[in-house]
Design brief:
Number of helices: 1
Largest sheet: 3 strands, antiparallel
GO cellular component, one term: peroxisome
Structural class: alpha+beta
Strand content: over 45%
Keywords: Signal
Radius of gyration: 16 Å
Number of domains: 1
Helix content: 10-25%
GO molecular function: 1,4-dihydroxy-2-naphthoyl-CoA thioesterase activity
Shape: elongated
GO biological process, one term: phylloquinone biosynthetic process
Order of helices and strands: EEEH
């Protein structure tokens, strides 16, 4: 899988995600299986029912 950031703004992020079939003998990309664009809103506050998960999610967020 390959993910590329297309746009990183304060309020949103746009990513292109590609899933490739790999050649098992060489581990190189062989065929494109699927491709998608994902848009994330990043300026929303955490809902009350999700507050207990917020710290754990931030631990693994790498941006």
């Amino acid at each position: 899988m390959r993910c590329t950031s297309l746009t990183l703004l304060l309020a949103s992020q746009v990513w292109e995600v590609q899933i490739w079939l790999l050649d098992p003998s060489t581990s190189e990309h062989k065929d494109l299986v699927s491709s998608a664009r994902v848009t994330l809103l990043t300026n929303l506050s955490t809902p009350e029912e999700m507050k207990s998960y917020e710290k754990g999610i931030k631990k693994y967020a790498k941006l």
